[in-house]
Amino acid sequence: MAVQVELSERLKQLPPYLFLEIDKAKRAAIAEGRDVINLGVGDPDQATHPVIMDAMKKAIDDPANHHYPFDAGVPQLRTEIAKWFTGRFGVDLDPVSEIYPLIGSKEGLAHFPLAVINPGEKVLLTEPAYPAYQAAVTFAGGKIQYLPLKASNDFLPKISDIVESKNVKAIIVCYPNNPTAAVATKQFYTDLVRVCIEKNIIIVSDLAYSEVYYDGIKPPSILEVSGAKDIAIEFHSFSKTYYMTGWRLGWACGNTTLIAALAKVKSNVDSGVFNAIQHAGIAALHIDKVEIEDMRICYQERRDALINGLRSIGWKIDPPKGAFYVWAKIPSKFTDSMACSKAFLDEANIIVTPGVGFGKSGEGYVRMALTVPVERIHEAVQRLSKVLV
Ligand SMILES: *Cc1c(COP(=O)(O)O)cnc(C)c1O
Question: How far is the CA of 2 from the centre of ligand 1 (A)?
């Protein structure tokens, strides 16, 4: 008789993968050779900057980089991150105790709950959200209480909901937000820090999209708020800013106790970031601001092409404030976000992500990623003009 392997309860607790059906249809469409425009991927289509690649090539040739990295990484990376942080947010960080390198910010976000959440302890998660938070809290045995993000509150959680919550250990927020493309104000962070200090709630801020913003309005860091370092840890990433998604490099910064706790978890799980990649990261931090502006101009052009194009065919959508997504209320002819995504794929060979896949409050929306060139966006609008009538 065949033996049935038994998987862990924590794995079984993860929600079913809602994109499964869409994924299958997508693969089938591509296999059939249909000309698919994929607005479903949150991965930039551009190549990493040559300066970063050159630094990597050089670092690879140095045998000193071939060993286990020190836990806390190449010291120069942390000092360069500190310099960058002061320049960008006006916040000084101690490179030794307030910054820690990560194998991408997702890795840090996934491991952090293990450092602070006991089984049964409650974590507030905004939703719709990046799915990794839910999995991370579940793996640590935490209980999730969702805070819905609504257009009527600019896709920010209501501070009053946090005030009224009971026995909460931590909250995770992400602005610029994936998937809603909302940006938090400094006032929101000020209120959040005040409430969380009062209630002793650890704040986790995911700032993976800090540099992807529009119209010159820079998203703040929660660490700009006085007192934030008492209660908050913030996760940053090289992925989106420098077109480095595949390289796996990010950092955590903020409260020293939380940083040390995350470091302790990590020291038992991984052995740090490949040194050569850390040197590539140092090179990235030295890239001229003007070149980073090119990335924003690129997304701004795509955003304008998509928003203006869809408006011209009668689909009114609010432009994103940050990140490279357009979060669009589905046209009224569709019953729900899955039906909308399916129709776009079947009738126009366009892939968009159904909002419900990011959480229940995402129902009624689809997410479109600005990760294809302007010509393809024009083509997508053209095709959609026939679907929307
Ligand atoms: C892309 C993304 C990340 C992960 O970035 P990595 O540093 O590549 O792990 C984290 N949070 C959100 C919301 C993202 O969309």
Answer: 40
- 174 Cβ closer than 6 Å to some ligand 1 atom: yes
What integer pLDDT is reported at residue 73 of this predicted model? 83
Quote the pTM value.
0.96
Q: CA end-to-end span of the chain, whole Å? A: 57
Three-class secondary structure of residue 286 per DSSP: coil
* pLDDT, position 75: 94
Residue 35 sits at φ, ψ, to 5 deg, of: -80, 85
Q: Which of 105, 127, 133 to mutate to test the pocket of ligand 1 (most atoms within 8 A of CB)?
A: 105
Residue 3 lies in a domain: no
How many whole angstroms separate alpha carbon 140 and alpha carbon 121? 9
Query: Domain of 318?
Result: 9-47+290-387
Residue at 242 is within a domain = yes
The residue ranges of the chain whose pLDDT is under 50 are: none
pLDDT of residue 275: 96
Q: What is the DSSP letter of 49?
A: P
Q: Are residues 311 and 244 in the same domain?
A: no
How many helices and strands, by DSSP H and E, does the chain display?
13, 12
| Residue among 103, 177, 205, 239 whose CB has most ligand 1 atoms within 8 A, to mutate | 239
Helix (H) or strand (E) holding 66: none
Q: How many C-beta atoms lie closer than 10 Å to residue 4's C-beta? A: 6
Place of tokens 């990597």: 56
Contact 352, 368 (CB under 8 A): yes
Per-residue pLDDT of 142-152, as tens digits, reads 999 999 999 99
Q: Are residues 37 and 142 in the same domain?
A: no
Q: CA 18, 19, 20, 25 torsion: positive or negative?
A: positive
In tens, the pLDDT along 36-60 reads 999 998 899 999 999 999 999 999 9
